[in-house]
Amino acid sequence: MVSRWSCVSKENRSGKQSTSWGLVSESEVTFSGSVEMDDSKKRILIIEDDEEMRSLLKDVIEEEGYEAESVEKGTYAFRKVMTKSFAVIITDVRMPGFSGLDILPGLRRLQPKTPIIVITAFGSEEVHRKALDRGASAYLEKPIRMDELRKLIHNMVFLQQDKGGTQWLEFSSSLTEDSLKP
Length: 182
Description:
By secondary structure, the protein is an alpha/beta fold. It contains 6 helices and 7 strands. The protein has helices at residues 51-63, 74-81, 100-110, 125-133, 146-163, 168-173; strands at 3-11, 17-25, 43-47, 67-71, 88-92, 116-120, 138-141. Helix 2 runs parallel beside helix 3. The longest helix has 18 residues, at 146-163. The chain is globular.
């Protein structure tokens, strides 16, 4: 399947920049529109095709006091990020249709300051490198240690609120297992 990104940027009536992105494949236009950011700092998007894992992640995130929204496909994720801002995005790598690696650049363009956590059961150095190269902020292999995920999300949300999201790349580059310990 051949796919490409298309983009239109324009200034709206209030003078703010509005960007519309579209992922176009040979057979369909998967999404289009523009992003209107709101001030929500506690909403987390889960992109996971496995229903049990998606439900588990949603439960864990909601137990921590965050609002969790979940979708089973990358194309559905774009519909969400086109209309809402998220404090953190979590995406699986292997999914039907577009993979987590395929959608990373678009997610990053639509919400450039939002940390993105990539999760996978099929980890390798190559997948890890590709995820980071395409815009992931963190990479976790399944089975996920939920305490590690909780701390990672908390640190990402806290840093965004504390620094307005501007220091994320600096934080990401210094993230180690030791930095996740209490």
